[in-house]
Amino acid sequence: MKILCFQLKRIGDLLLTTPALAALTRAYPEAEIHVAVDKAFSSLFPCLPAHRIHPLRGGGSSVWIGLLRERYDVCLDFNSSDRSALAAFLVNSPLKITYSQFAWRPFRKKIYNTFVSSIPNQRHTADFHTDLLSPLGIRCTETSLLIRLPTGVLQTTDALLEKLHVTSPFVIVHPGTFRREKYWLNERWLTVIRHLREYHHLPVLLTGSSSCKERQFLKSLISYKKAPWHDLTGKLNLSQFAALIFRAHLLCGVDSAPIHLADALSIPCIALFGPTNPFQWRPRNLNSRVLTPSRIAPHSSQAQEGTMEDISVDMVISTIDTLLADISITPSSLGIACPSPG
User: Fold this and answer.
1) CA spacing 20 to 30 A to 40: which of 7, 89, 241, 341?
2) In the chain, how many domains are there?
3) Cα distance between residue 45 and residue 41, in whole Å
4) Residues 119 and 267 in one domain
5) Residue 33 in 3-state DSSP?
6) Interval 14-46: pLDDT, tens
């Protein structure tokens, strides 16, 4: 049996699809699970719970040809973009499944033969993705994100930490994101990093992508001359970054892929949400904390209100102190005297 899954959206969406991939493997242990994704995430391919990855977006004609030579028993399209719909139309499969919300798009009713009703803004995205498995008789109660880290990647990351003379415990701060409205102010991140260094005496690793737009927005932070961190922005691929998160004791960031990586690896995380609703996108491991600008509970499906600027430094620092105490990482646990107030 072969099952093909299309997930051509961003890395966060791909990570939030991993519970569905794992559920397919549990339900059909003898089946081959293939996933069509964006080539940009190629370094993460060995970490995904799938037997074969097709870099359909950006992979060239050879990927399409190879895909069309396969015969699949089931085709699951998690996003029904024009690209994935075309591939679903061409691929050889008797059962083609997508969401009913996409049925209105051109030609979808001719391409797919099974539509699943699920309301995305009423479900966490990981749960929404597992809903697509219902025509196969799969009902998921376990929707934790899942990635696996190859030994070689962990060894490379350990060698990097040794080279930087960084020992555990350490904190990752990831201020970057694809969307401008998700950024928090650079000067506030600087205050938070100083607190981690001066109060908790924890090494800080600053991470980020190689995106020119992201680096431009973070320029004042990255170029800070007396930087109390190790700058790893743009220096890691996705699998290396995942391994670094796995070695960390805490990740602080905004609503972007790293918080989902931390969630998948059960690493404590503080996630800042502004314009996006954490009800749909929040990390759900027990050591995660979600901060929002509004008074609406993070677990509410109500529309999110406020901006990133409404999240105060004091709120973030207080959450860091509480979470580090909860996971038993405090200055006193490290044998360090706490600085006097003021």
Assistant:
1) 89
2) 2
3) 7
4) no
5) strand
6) 999 999 999 999 999 999 999 999 999 999 999
